[in-house]
Amino acid sequence: MARGVEASVVMMVAVWWSVFTATQAAQQNWTLSGTNLTAGGAVPGGVYSDLMTAQYLHDGDFYYRFNDLNYRLVSMDNWTYTTQLDVDASLLNHTRVALVFEGLDTVAEVAIGSEVVGHSDNMFVRYVFNVKDQLQEGNANTLQVKFESPVTYAAHMYDAQAADYIVPPKCVPSAYQGECHANHIRKMQASFSWDWGPAFPNAGIWKDWRLVGWNSLLVTDIYFSATPSSSLPTTPDPSFRPGWNITIKVWCDAAQESGEVGGSLTISLGNLYSLKQTITATVENYEAVLVSNFKIEEDQVDLWWPNGYGNQPLYNLTALWSNSAETETSSKTVSVGFRTVELNQDYIDLDNITKGRHYRVIVNNVTLFMKGSNWIPAHILPESVTPEYTRALLNAAAQTHQNCIRVWGGGIYETDVFYQIADELGILIWEDMMFACSMYPVNEDFLTSVEAEVTTQVRRLQHHPSILLWAGNNENEAALRGNWYATAQNFDQYKADYITLYVDTIRPIAMEIDDTRPFVVSSPSNGIKSEEEGYIAAHPYDNLYGDVHYYNYISDAWQGEPFPITRFASEYGYQSWPSFKSMHEVTMEEDWSSTSPMSYHRQHHPVGQEELALQVGLHMELPPQDGTAASYQQYLYLTQVHQAMAVKAETEFYRRWMSSVTDEGEGYTSGALYWQLNDIWQGASWASIEYGGRWKMLHYYAKNFFAPVITSTYMDTDNVKVYVVSDEIGDVKNAKLTLKLHRYDQLGAVFSVDNTLTVAGRTASEAFSLNLESDLALSTHCQKDLIDLVDVCFLTSHLALSDGSYLAPDNFYLLGKPKDAPLPDATIQVTSILGPTSSGSSDWTFTVTVNSDAVALFVWLETDVSGVFSQNGFVMTESQMEVLFYADQETTTGELQASLTVMSLTDTLSRVYQNQQQEGLKDSAIHPNDIRNVFIL
Ligand code: BMA
């Protein structure tokens, strides 16, 4: 250890910029020109944003109504970004002078003056173009980046490929309102449209760029591997702090094409380690990799844990290169964490291997249930996503106990800041490679481009402790086996192509660069079993192996448990619409109906509106869409209720299967990642958070169903089963579980049973099995007219510690369907708002008291003030509830009260709704959701 070196390291970092001459994006003026118009260009940025800024695209909000269609011509044009480079003589004196583009979207020719210096064809590749010979001293250097229309390029590539054989799909379904052939261009696949998002195929210099000159090496990326020197305990023990064997690799751009270059490498890791080593680097094809191995002694380092299991200590790792003469340095700092990850696929029963294999995540030698969701791009234009918005979304995931997010393969390899925030929050990232729901070409150019893409991305992201695994693609194994795109007739060709791309091209590169985490060929897949079956398994959705994506829009999701007992549910979900507040921003009055052309336009899932109506109608009464904002808002609300209830049921189902297994081997479910966390725009989707950050009812429900300990009730014919599921490491003794029976027509409970139990850590166990009649006496407690007993009553469950404090959030289970229940006409009022006070969640925390004169289902609070409630969409069984509101910024009770509304399922019942219409409560304008006013008594 050479701690003394640290001081000089700091100084050397500080002089970095004085050594190189660099032209930074922020200082540079760019012009954007298309066939017919010219505008200012923002770099990093994109054409759509520039045209918005220049007011060429001026139809209200970017996502307003049919703008996706109206603005489509932009993507059909070719666009050129132009700037003048002012070049200093000293820059040209360097051995190598290059333009470095961290990202070009997508197909472009880069020229200085009339000389072409490079080409790009992949949004995910970092390009380094030599320009020394093309630049002149002074400002007479015109740099042009000429983008070809991504839509026409993809069509040409498709045609060229089709001359041999078609690589499908030929196009997205018409309901997507999108563009065809995204699979023929290495660009965000969803930018051509998806079943939750619009088509805005962008173009532009979407990441940083710079002009740089250097003589030796330029540090680009850092690899970090830490292996504990003794095995970690299977039960976390903070006092166990092993030593670590560390390997660092520093990838560098070299000034020379090949040969050797001498200098030194200084590695410093927090205050744990710092050493300067003399190094002779071997350069090949303008690249060098510097390697350093060292040990960290015991008791120096705290483990990095996923959210919910401990802290996320991060250590700064700096690699600093200096040439031999110490006249040139280059450095990079990343933050790293100490943890191990494993995707365990052991047989679940060595005596009977037909029962299949586990698919479980082991972090720091501890098996953890993965709770989380799937991430899609936060905006169709990457330049529109701020670090603050990214943080807000990931925070919302962490606040709802999520410890794993899958970055889905149809979007982008996310920004550095995304993974940095995930590192800080302890959210493990299941990282797909960006290939989704398609077959892909495997011609030489395409593969060469993919090689560069995987190299760029795995090198860039490898050091993040949050990244759990790499997955080759989204659903392409299942698509091929399932003949989604009519590939069956030429199956062997597509299978061979599949293996060429994912197994022979992507996997070896990813694994060569990153040997620290698993690589799975597809997501979902049967894992090892898929590989044994030649990568295209006979049944890719086999419950006994790997992960499963499961969607079912026909069955009753609230009851009846139509879900697969999978090892790992990496996608499942149900649609809903965003709130009226969100829809209002991009619609006009004539759009406010579930059957309006606008609603169909924004429902990209084929037959989605009908499926949604069916699903909502299974349990609730669909309001007639009579053109009023009130009935439209009720429809939006009901879709959110349906989604929240369905995903709650499905997630609880997966959690209940965490520690048991059927005789056939189904069970040991070890992950539940619902589809999808965030939205790309305001439209029908599976998201739990609306575009802009507003929580849907599902997100509030996720806070409960992902809690570390939950109770979960379901019906098994005439028996009610109550499970207690714990993700806690240890057991909790003397917990008291209470199950209460309630009637819809009276507040309070009519019957209850309780049980004192030990809640076993990392276990799901049945705590009650109660017969509806003999144990809960439904015919005694739930008689009303000729109504079915199960429609008169419902259940709530409560789990408390011996001191009375909550161990699990209160839960509820509806025995029947609300549409068949004698729901009372609850009048719900907010009776007081107190605050603000400071809480762990917000400096402006308000206590909102809600009163009801009757039982109310799915009580829903809304406000224009930015922030979240402590709970929402809840069931009221008592006359009063206190809910906290955590504002994002300074606000007052007055401001909160001014826009606070409350409604419940009662408000959507036709008898209530019609009464409101007769009483003249018909709302029309901006705020139709004042269905229940807020009274401050
Ligand atoms: C899965 C995903 C996405 C899609 C979602 C909902 O297939 O991988 O492609 O958006 O289902 O249909």
UniProtKB/TrEMBL annotation:
Q: Does the keyword Signal apply?
A: yes
Q: What is its EC number?
A: 3.2.1.25
**This protein's UniProt keywords:** Glycoprotein, Glycosidase, Hydrolase, Lysosome, Signal
InterPro entries reported in the protein's UniProt record:
Beta-gal/glucu_dom_sf, Beta-mannosidase-like_N2, Beta-mannosidase_GH2, Beta-mannosidase_Ig, Galactose-bd-like_sf, GH, Ig-like_fold, Ig-like_GH2
Catalytic reaction(s) noted = Hydrolysis of terminal, non-reducing beta-D-mannose residues in beta-D-mannosides
Write down the top EC class of this protein.
hydrolase
Write the lineage as a comma-separated list.
Eukaryota, Metazoa, Ecdysozoa, Arthropoda, Crustacea
Superkingdom: Eukaryota
Please indicate if the UniProt record lists ATP-binding as a keyword: no
Which residue intervals define the domain Beta-mannosidase Ig-fold in the entry? Answer: 841-908
Please give the name of this protein. beta-mannosidase
The record's section on Pfam families has:
Glyco_hydro_2, Glyco_hydro_2_N2, Ig_mannosidase
Source organism per entry reads Petrolisthes manimaculis
Question: Which cellular component terms (GO) are annotated to the entry?
Answer: lysosome
Q: Which GO terms describe its biological process?
A: glycoprotein catabolic process
